[in-house]
Design goal:
Helix content: 25-40%
Strand content: 25-35%
Structural class: alpha/beta
Shape: elongated
Number of strands: 7
Order of helices and strands: EHEHEEHEEHEHH
């Protein structure tokens, strides 16, 4: 059985594009918040999630993922309320940042890891536009305080890379990692 170690409805929807027969088991452990850089942190958190769930399901295939929004070495986690979301979006306005997703697959006592990175370019956003977007509530549970697939789409000038990575589960990279682990996700 394939297990997704995530409660994210966005990751669940994306995984359905690769396979329909999977179940959800959420890692209840605390995420890590420090590492050498955003890429390393994303991979460590994805591995931690997958390994934590795999302890209880050693015969299954466990997929872990962690998405981090960063500008240089500054990491934008889920905001601390509306004021945190406003502050993050003001920082991202008119600038380029990166979205990293770490991937981990635990199978047969082994762990396979990889990551993807996508550049996101925001156009300028006025204070009024930011306030209206934050008032929708959408940014409050998202790393970087925005959803590419949601209301933030109107602010995004362009992206370089995989859009599914920004949403939280880079499908092409996951399919390649599964193949490297000897798994066919069909």
């Amino acid at each position: 059985m394939i297990i997704l170690a995530s409660s994210s409805p966005r990751r669940q929807e994306l995984l359905k594009k690769l396979c329909t027969n999977f179940k959800i088991e959420v890692c209840k452990d605390e995420e890590l918040h420090k590492a050498a850089n955003p890429k390393v942190l994303a991979i460590k958190n994805a591995s931690h999630k997958a390994e934590s769930v795999a302890k209880n399901f050693p015969q299954d295939i466990v997929i872990g993922a962690d998405t981090i929004v960063a500008m240089g070495d500054k990491i934008f986690e889920k905001p601390n309320g509306k004021s945190g979301a406003i502050e993050t979006l003001k920082t991202l306005s008119g600038k380029r940042h990166e979205v990293f997703t770490g991937l981990a697959i635990c199978v047969g006592g082994k762990i396979f890891t990889d990551f993807d990175v996508t550049e996101v370019f925001f156009g300028e956003m006025s204070d009024e536009e930011i306030a209206a977007y934050v008032a929708t509530g959408e940014p409050l549970d998202k790393s970087g305080s925005y959803a590419l697939q949601g209301g933030a789409a109107k602010f995004i000038k362009k992206i370089h890379g995989d859009w599914s990575n920004v949403v939280g589960l880079p499908l092409y990279k996951l399919r390649q990692l599964a193949k490297n682990a000897g798994i066919n996700l069909i």
